[in-house]
Amino acid sequence: MPERHRPQEPRRDLPRLGFGLGLRPEYYPDILDGDPPVDWFEAISENYMVDGGPPLRKLDQVAERWPVVLHGVSLSIGGSDPLDFEYLARLKALARRAKPAWVSDHLCWSRHNGTHLHDLLPIPFNDETLRHVASRVRQVQDFLGRRILLENVSSYIEWRSSTMAEWKFLARLSEEADCLLLLDVNNVYVSARNHGFAAEDFLNGLPVGRVAQMHLAGHSDTGAFIIDTHDAPITDPVFALYRKAVQRFGPVPSMIERDDNFPPFAELLDELARVRREAAAALAVPA
Amino acid sequence: MTMLSALQAEFSAFLLQGADDRLLAARVRQPAQGETAERLAVYGNAYRERLRETLARDYPSLLRLIGQTRFAALAYDYIAARPSKHPNIRWFGARLAAFMAEQPRWRDDVTAWDMAVFEWSIGLAFDAAEAETLQVADLAAIPAQDWAALRFRLHPGLQLLQLSHAVPDWWLAAQETDEAIEPPPPRPLAPDERHWAIWRAADGVRFRPLEADEAGAIFALRDGGDFGALCALLAERHGPEQAAIPAAGLLRLWVETGWIAGLA
User: How many whole angstroms separate alpha carbon A5 and alpha carbon A246?
Assistant: First the structure.
């Protein structure tokens, strides 16, 4: 039987934020000039790692009214290049300013030999990589003075040098590095389709107490495989997987990422209302 | 080299140089559906398209000025020649104007180069650091005998640039007209029209041309010249008796516009 959610030690100090949206400049007027029913916002860290001007002022205004979390894309925790402590110092300074409930990034690599590839690239899931990444997560957490959340990415290839499933890697990493997990339900769905594994196995392989946030988003289906595009509404199969995730991990803070083909804000709010309903329905199902 | 670093070196070469994907494919499991090459191509396309879109976002008027096809050609040339060295994609386009100036294919398109310089400077003003600004009352409190040696710090958002074509007018016209209607090509600027200032005001980024006196004076001040040097510069044009008054007037104007962060 899959484990069902119950209060767990690792994430006990994190607030139950509810249901949020990605903070995108396209929606600043809708967010700041109104009073939208959004419980919290997730800001892309790099968008605010600038010296001044309107971006930081907008973030300040949002942070005055809502809880925010910071979500980075450039940590390259799975990279073989040394950690970039200049980047981390800027991230730490931003966190001092925005006071996020938590800070997250991705289990991936994005930099090699000093060149930034600005993508979330897959790592091989094996013991060598696990030791390497766990050590780096501990260094990052020591430097930032807080636990970080790492997100599973969508992938289109699997490395032959992988010796364990992605969920096994995430589970072991979270224990060995004492970090938390950001479960991207859409990414699980995308990678499951692309690589032919059961999405439920992914969910059931993650330790319940380590999953501290969930992402939802839309994707593009090419037929032969799926691309994680964040440019469309969440699909029904991803909602179905989300219900299973909520049953397993509990009322974990959940949010929608939308990064392209931006709909009117009211449509995103309707979609967020559906996320709330799906979560409530999942939790109402008896164990 | 560790296994991880060898794998990442090969993948980087594939993305950056379009290296033979058969080498990389040997490291990849046969996908459940379709071919390895098309899966790798997802990454290859995403890399180029993400960076091209970033340039299009940072240089929207350049794109409109030279058109989609030429812009895409410029973007792909730049992406291939100048891989990103900054973790924040905000800075990827920083070297575009310098790149254009070096390339036979682009260096003669002076209008395009002007627009690249102008648009990047707008972005620099937009998210430059905040700074206190000097107030007119602060100036009034300075004893007369100290004035000649005064040096000033400019606001970090203030961008001073030289353009050879009226791309700011084109930029404005493009903001105000439908995508389908092209404003007339930017006209060449006379030598005394070529200096421009861009700055961040409370309500957004502003820009204006600088007349010859003002341009000489603000560039001198930026380069560390003191108020005495500024007066000497104006004296060359107006005669020694007339220099202090326009210098004080210019300084007051800059202070009121928020260009001066403080005394150096």
Answer: 8
